[in-house]
Amino acid sequence: MRKASFFDFSILLLLAAIWGSAFFNIKIASSSYTPITLALGRVLFAGIPLLTYCYFKKIKISFLGSEWKLLAGIALVNLVLPFFFISYGIIKVQSNLAAILMSVAPIAATIFGHFFTKNEKNTLMNSAGILVGFLGIVYLFSDDILINETNIFSALIIILGPICYTLGGLVTLRLENKKNEDVTTSILIWAIIFLIPLSFIIEKPWNLDLEIKPTLSLIYLGVIPTAGAWLLRFYILRKNGLVFQSQVAYLIPIFGLFFGFIFLDEIITHKVIISLGAVLVGIFLVERSKYSKKKSLKSD
Q1: By residue range, what is the domain housing residue 28?
Q2: Euclidean distance between CA atoms 163 and 188, whole angstroms
Q3: Which of 24, 48, 86, 212 is most buried, by the most CB atoms less than 10 A from its CB?
Q4: Residue 76 DSSP class
Q5: Has this prediction a pTM greater than 0.70?
Q6: Rounded to an integer, what distance in angstroms lies between the CA atom of residue 258 and that of residue 106?
């Protein structure tokens, strides 16, 4: 991989800003759309540009191929469930808190990687990172101003989102011989197949009182943070590699905090700042440990 340029860092910053902007837009969209229907709209609007991209790139979509069961399972764990959990939880929780809670993902990935992969065993450094990040999340739950008995369940539900993302990522490793475009578009199609009957049977979306602003946020969520960000992520991975791309995890909660404050006038308490700092230190230790391990393997 080539050395990162100013342009590469700009793209990384853009990716973090796009993913960070998802949280306040989910909050806005949830004012008109119920959780399952919001998740459905998100994958629908993401599927359109990705299918178009694959069509012009002449990339075959194998969602009904020999590994359709695995793709369907990944869609359920990596899209349907986390999109629902986040959309449901954010109704009673500030969007900036959701952004911090989603930072559990790289820490959860380290824990699961230790038990379910052969080359991701924990070291002293990433164990320290897990502990610091976990304590940061625990400290956030002590903020009585933002998390109390009326919304603590919603906050816990949001944490299930990054856990699902992590589990879905581990299962996706079994499809390493498939193109990323094929896998992503295939699981989007399966997510749509799952969510349409769930939305129609449980939430009856035709009865919703829809407004323009939440609808624009929903379209944005599908086209930009889901489809567009995925294409940016793929570009960064090809040009600069996984270690460089993983640095986006530090920036997403910062943007989420900033956007929630600017666009929704959300409260930022001192406990939120301390919790965010602890989570970022935890992520840094985890990612630093991975980098050091890869560096030592190369030197051997």
Answers
A1: 6-299
A2: 19
A3: 86
A4: I
A5: yes
A6: 21
Cα distance between residue 46 and residue 25, in whole Å: 15
With contact defined as beta carbons under 8 Å apart, do 109 and 169 qualify? Answer: yes
Assigned token pair, 97? 């808190």
Total residues found in the chain within this entry: 300
One-character DSSP codes across 57-113: TTPPP-TTSTTHHHHHHHHIIIIIHHHHHHHHHTTTS-HHHHHHHTTHHHHHHHHHH
What separation in angstroms does the CA of 260 have from each of 98, 141, 146, 255? 10, 18, 13, 8
- Tokens (6 digits) for 95: 């969007």
| CA trace torsion 107, 82, 252, 70 (10° rounding) | 70
Does residue 95 lie within any of the structural domains? yes
Distance between first and last Cα of the chain: 19
Residue range 183-239, pLDDT digits in tens: 889 999 999 999 999 999 999 999 999 999 999 999 999 999 999 888 888 777 767
Rounded CA-CA distance 234/221 in Å is: 18
Which residue did the predictor score with more confidence, 128 or 255? 255
What's the DSSP call for residue 60? P
Which residue in the block uniquely carries the two structure tokens 């959780």?
A: 35
In a domain, 170, yes or no: yes
CA distance 165 to 143: 26
**Residue 46 burial (C-beta neighbours within 10 Å; 0-12, 13-18, 19+):** buried
C-alpha distances (whole Å) from 275 to each of 48, 73, 101 are 38, 33, 10
Q: Residue holding tokens 């995925």?
A: 230
CA neighbor of 59 nearest in space, from 186, 190, 171, 230:
186
Q: Does residue 1 belong to any structural domain of this protein? A: no
Closest Cα partner for 190 from 297, 65, 296, 72?
72
What is the mean pLDDT of the segment spanning 8-37?
94
Instruction: Find out whether 255 and 21 touch, Cβ atoms under 8 Å.
Output: yes
pLDDT tens sequence across 266-295 = 999 999 999 999 988 888 887 777 666 555
| Number of domains the chain is built from | 1
